[in-house]
Write a structure and sequence with these properties.
329 residues; 67% helix; mainly alpha; 0% strand
Length: 329
């Protein structure tokens, strides 16, 4: 049981690293650093020697070897592979210790299934040339893995019972907050994968207007290729405006919703650390988001934005676990 607890905790931190590395790879335009999957130019590492590079170029003539981008992509894959093995071990241990754990052991096998699907999304990201819906779902999948591992860790190490929040409406606020965070993460991923983050570079206006010219239908049409509309034409600036503007609106909603939740938590005993953490992280996330716009999306700051989204998700997952009674397997 002690090994399972430690393995789950390590996996949670590793999942946060994988999510952050994924954001860094995407933001540094290294998502196609390796044109194949799961290897790189037909091998399990990046071609280094002159002969290896020549063979790689012959096999993939349309994809010049760029070592910096290829290594970023492969390091992300290596760490994700280690996480996958850890999660498989968690599932095996959970099934053996199902009478002792505080969550349904079937959740660990569902997590294995999610990781397999996540690997498929990673492959499709490459083979479908960064199709926005695939890349966005890959982000959601990674965040879902992080969320489930966070839940497992809290069930092992945290305290949890429904009586912590007696008011049913207040519990509903916490429950729906988790849904809201996932929606906003998808909107952020959709903004990033469509390269719409700099469609507007002023704040709070967009090119001097609070409500700019937008084409929401084109912007949020899911089944299309990168940079193109459903008609195959180049995605319009109005569509990019719409994508970023909706993400901005979502950011305001999450900020205000989190402030509401902070007030609720402060009225209940045992949530001072939770409310303080939520207030700090959501405020910092909002400031970093604005800074990304005004500073034209520097990669370290943009990666931090993704990292903070993961922390915000972990807080909401932890709160939901805290107000949920122990599971009896």
């Amino acid at each position: 049981m002690h090994s399972l607890k430690k393995l789950t905790l390590v996996s949670m931190f590793l999942a946060m690293i994988v999510v952050s590395l994924g954001a860094y790879v995407r933001l540094s335009d290294a998502g196609l650093g390796c044109p194949d999957w799961p290897g790189c130019y037909g091998t399990l590492t990046v071609p280094q020697s002159i002969d290896a590079i020549q063979l790689a170029q012959e096999a993939f003539p349309e994809s010049p070897v760029e070592h910096a981008k290829a290594w970023k992509e492969m390091i992300h894959r290596y760490v994700a592979g280690v996480l996958g093995f850890f999660i498989l071990a968690i599932a095996i241990l959970s099934s053996k210790l199902k009478e002792q754990i505080n969550f349904n052991f079937k959740l660990s096998f569902a997590l294995v299934g999610l990781v397999i699907f996540q690997a498929a999304l990673g492959m499709w990201t490459v083979t479908m040339l960064l199709k926005p819906i695939i890349v966005s779902l890959h982000l959601i999948g990674g965040m879902s893995v992080l969320a489930i591992l966070t839940y497992m860790v809290h069930r092992h190490y945290g305290t949890h019972r429904s009586s912590f929040i007696k008011n049913e409406f207040e519990r509903s606020i916490i429950r729906f907050g988790l849904v809201l965070i996932f929606i906003q993460i998808f909107l952020g991923g959709w903004t990033s994968t469509n390269y719409a983050a700099l469609a507007c570079t002023d704040f709070p206006t967009c090119h001097g207007s609070l409500i700019p010219e937008m084409d929401l239908f084109a912007g949020f049409s899911l089944n299309r290729d990168l940079g193109l509309g459903v008609d195959g034409e180049t995605l319009s600036l109005a569509a990019l405006h719409g994508i970023q503007w909706v993400h901005r609106l979502g950011a305001f909603v999450v900020l205000l919703y989190s402030f509401l939740l902070v007030n609720i938590l402060r009225k209940n005993q045992g949530f001072s650390l939770w409310s303080g953490s939520l207030l700090i992280i959501v405020s910092l996330q909002f400031i970093v988001g604005i800074s990304n716009l005004l500073l034209h999306l520097p990669i370290p700051l943009a990666t931090l934005h993704n990292f903070l989204a993961g922390l915000l998700l972990m807080i909401y997952v932890g709160l939901n676990s805290r107000i949920t009674d122990s599971w009896q397997n």
